[in-house]
Specification:
Shape: globular
Structural class: alpha/beta
Number of strands: 14
Strand order of the largest sheet: 5-4-3-2-1-6-8-7
Distance between the termini: 15 Å
Strand content: 15-25%
Number of helices: 15
Oligomer: single chain
Radius of gyration: 21 Å
Length: 395
């Protein structure tokens, strides 16, 4: 049996999925949460709906990997570790150094670590997990799949900031985007669902989760995306501000008595967005429940979230001079019919309407009416299978 693992390490989490390749059959999947905190959670699903959940302190990503392999062996998910012939690691920031996926070497791991200045919450953790896997599976083909790779096709007019040009030349200060693996998968899948040529379509993909980004995909290439130099930019997110006037930073630092800029950046990343506006939660389900119960700040947070998405969709229709399809995906996009309906109904002038019956789903579906000028789809993302395919390509 040939097994490929897709691995997604976050700052305090580790998601994984095992596929039998090339059939792309899911053998097992799971998640380690709260790494570095008390009462960390390990979850594993395998076999015939068998589940394992263990709560224990997991202080580091290396320990998380150790526990993962222990349980794969304990529950006989894998007969022998040599059956794992490939591992694909999702990496948030590849900068300009990695324009496509790369085989993992010590040099690549060091470069991923160094690129941590572009994604400080993710890249260091991803480098640590790559080292741990490389040690445990020395014979496996190991690849780094970069979130930014899909966006390396952005034209300069869209990736450059209006700063002195030498800042780009000297420091690579530019828009890089994120969620590229997801945007790539769902845009291709949308074209397949419609029976259309991917390379002759204009598609806007809305990856809406705790982190959220919108991407314009024209003729199979990313031409603009909402996240920027880091994943902080763009639409309002769970705990991130999205776009703001940077002059607010020194103003607020002075008012709050903050002298360390990293403390301010932490506020923008972890204490803002839906959580900061609502004062309720970063979770859209909690926001909607509070809104429906009459909480005005939750209502405002919801409306800001929807409004920012609508503005980006409008921008990207202008960027591509038209649109053939709009795709919703990720935690909120896939699961919240009310968000999808409110986003599209609020931009009805562009020519699409939602079919409420079709929209009542969490599965793949066309959710717009037959007479819509463009098609609206719900496409659950599958970054893991996209990662597994990349590993197979590089073998």
């Amino acid at each position: 049996m040939s097994i490929t693992m897709a691995v997604n390490a976050g700052s305090s989490s580790l998601k994984f999925q095992l596929f039998e390749m090339p059939q792309e059959t899911v053998i097992a999947k799971g998640l380690v949460e709260r790494i570095g905190l008390n009462d960390s959670i390990f979850q594993l699903e395998y076999g015939n709906d068998q589940e394992v959940k263990v709560v224990e302190d997991i202080p580091t990503h290396d320990r998380a990997v150790e526990i993962l392999f222990h349980h794969l062996e304990e529950y006989k998910v894998v007969e022998q570790f040599d059956d794992i012939t490939g591992v694909g690691h999702r990496v948030v920031a590849g900068g300009e150094l990695f324009k496509e996926s790369a085989l993992v070497t010590d040099e690549v791991i060091a470069a991923v670590d160094e690129l941590g200045e572009f994604a400080p919450l993710h890249n260091p953790a991803e480098a640590a997990v790559m080292r741990a896997f490389k040690e445990r599976l020395p014979k496996a083909t190991m690849a780094a799949i970069f979130d930014t790779s899909f966006h390396t096709t952005l034209p300069a007019v869209n990736y450059l900031y209006s700063l002195p040009y030498e800042y780009y030349e000297d420091f690579k200060a530019r828009k890089y985007g994120a969620h590229g693996t997801s945007h790539s998968y769902v845009s291709r899948r949308a074209a397949e669902m419609l029976g259309r040529d991917y390379h002759s379509m204009k598609i806007i993909t809305c990856h809406l989760g705790n982190g959220a980004s919108i991407t314009a995909v024209e003729n199979g290439k990313s031409v603009d995306t909402s996240m920027g130099f880091t994943p902080l930019a763009g639409v309002t997110m769970g705990t991130r501000t999205g776009d703001i006037d940077v002059s607010l930073m020194p103003f607020l630092m002075k008012k709050l008595g903050i002298t360390d800029v990293s403390e301010m950046v932490n506020i923008l990343n972890k204490k803002s967005g839906l959580a900061g506006i609502s004062g309720v939660s970063s979770d859209m389900r909690d926001i909607i429940a509070a809104r429906d119960a009459g909480n005005e700040r939750a209502k405002l947070a919801y409306e800001i979230f929807v409004s920012r998405i609508q503005k980006y969709i409008g921008q990207y229709i202008a960027v591509m001079n038209g649109v053939d399809a709009i795709v919703f995906t990720a935690g909120i996009g896939e699961n919240s019919s009310v968000v999808r309906e409110d986003v599209i109904n609020g931009i009805s002038a562009f020519g699409a309407t939602i079919d409420s019956e079709r929209n009542n789903t969490r599965k793949e579906a066309i959710i717009s009416t037959e007479d819509s000028r463009y098609v609206v789809l719900n496409v659950p993302t599958n970054e893991e299978v996209e990662i597994a395919r990349e590993v197979e390509r590089l073998k």
